[in-house]
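So, read this over?
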Amino acid sequence: MAFALRSVRGPALLLLASVSVGGCTTYPHHVSYPSPPVEAAPTAYSREGVASWYGPGFHGRKTASGERFNQRDLTCAHRTLPFGTRLKVTNLANGESLIVTVNDRGPYVGRRIVDLSREAARRLDILGTGTARVRLETASAFDEQALNDTPVVLSGADPD
């Protein structure tokens, strides 16, 4: 009889131990992490550096902000500025300026400070060169009114 109890006691203790330990190591089915704090748009931002542009290969795809990229919109990709930030971009070679909205992340090439949509690059006259030295500044209401009142002449049809 002592032999029978010993042979049953070992597996019973092992089973009891595994059930109690298994109950302590349950994993949640859904793990959620706290969202990063929402950044406020900077009140005064100004940088100079090299801009590039992107368009045809990304047209219609989702941006980092979740909206669809349209190469004909006046938008840009910036590494750190909050989505929705309005920037005045000035081509330092020709003085042309316009207002763009940050809706994507980038650029990821070299030391460039912004990737412009194809339309923004066209209006700033940097399509041919691909890059240009620019100044980025947070846009004021005055900038937007002045630049929006400037007539825009479109040349030719844009490819999809």
